[in-house]
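To start, an entry.
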Amino acid sequence: MARKETAADAANPGRLKQIALTFKMTRKADPMIVLVLAGVGIVTFGVFLAIGFLIGHPVYLGILGFLLAFLAMAIVFGRRAERAAFGQMEGQPGAAAAVLDNIGRGWTTTPAVAMNRSQDVVHRAVGKAGIVLVAEGNPNRVKTLLAAEKRKMARIVSDVPVNDILVGNGEGQVPLKKLRTTMLKLPRVLTGPQVTTTNDRLRAMGDLMSNMPLPKGPMPKGMRMPRGGGKAR
């Protein structure tokens, strides 16, 4: 019992530190965050308190208003923090991999299955929507990477549908902040066992970066492309 309490106590400072770091990052990108949160909290609490006085229960409505004000502030903070995070990641090599890594259950993602010396990169995600190749970089150059990756996969998983998404803000591209939503909206065409089989076959094929441990989040701008291909996993 004591061990559980100790572990929980040790985790709390970590969570508080993470929240503090997130707040600092968000405030740096969004200087109005403090005023916005204060406004949301005051307005929410004030509305419920006013209703409480009108109906003769200011204490009960005041407590409820306080709780709902805190909830509203947390929701607004979460959304603006997410927007700030996307703003900082956008344009960095490997930013899409960070989004794919947090897409949710049911998806298996493999970052950097293809890359060139200009750091244009293609990531792969497998789920009930089939195979999704997510490319980021120069639109003209990544077309070559996508075509080569599709040819390579056609020898192994020709019966599985393949979608490709180009991350960016140009015509026909998907903004980074909408990548997760776009993928989750893709129609489901595979069953659970089919997804497992597809993943097994792709792992047997291997990928370019299988021998390189990739950090979570955007790839360092100075990272160089390996000269040889990866071994099958």
In short: The radius of gyration is 23 Å. Residues 2-89 form one domain. Helices lie at 2-29, 33-55, 58-89, 95-101, 139-154, 179-184, 192-205. The chain has two domains: 2-89, 95-205.
